[in-house]
Design a protein that fits this description.
Blueprint (H helix, E strand, L loop, with lengths): L14 E2 L7 E2 L11 H41 L6 E2 H5 L10 E2 L4 E2 L3 E8 L2 E8 L2
Antiparallel strand pairs: 1-2, 3-7, 4-5, 5-6, 6-7
Length: about 130
């Protein structure tokens, strides 16, 4: 006769919670990896969600740098309608491959549109402001 205070034998071995808390538990199902829903939610929020948000923050930061660089050179060449070498903008942290959207002719940042023009061996950039 088994005493009610004794643990019932289980064919499933004990395991450590996958959320990273280090608690050892007796799973009720063979596919149970978390102690309970609270631990599963914690694991989701700490790993998957934060990794995604971290990537978004880095992209947002680079888009702001791009917009700041475009703003500087737009103000320099606004009245003269100048073209600038892309290499010059890259020295200040500009990334021409990262844009919000594009069409056949222009690429768009938050406040500016720009066009890449190849002349001889150089690639120049034409910057237009939103009006």
């Amino acid at each position: 006769m088994i005493n009610s205070n004794q643990e019932q034998p289980s064919p499933i071995p004990k395991r450590v919670c996958a959320c990273g808390c280090g608690i050892e538990f007796q799973p009720r199902r063979t596919n149970q990896i978390y102690l309970n829903k609270k631990h599963a939610d914690y694991a989701h929020n700490q790993r998957k969600k934060k990794q995604r948000i971290g990537r978004d923050v880095e992209l947002e930061k680079q888009l702001r740098v791009n917009d700041k660089v475009l703003d500087k050179y737009y103000k320099l060449g606004q009245k003269l309608n100048l073209q600038f070498p892309v290499k010059l903008l890259k020295t200040e942290g500009f990334d021409e491959n990262l844009t919000l959207r594009s069409n056949k002719e222009f690429f768009y940042s938050y406040n500016y549109a720009f066009k890449l023009v190849k002349q001889n061996e150089n690639i120049n950039i034409i910057i237009k402001g939103y009006e």
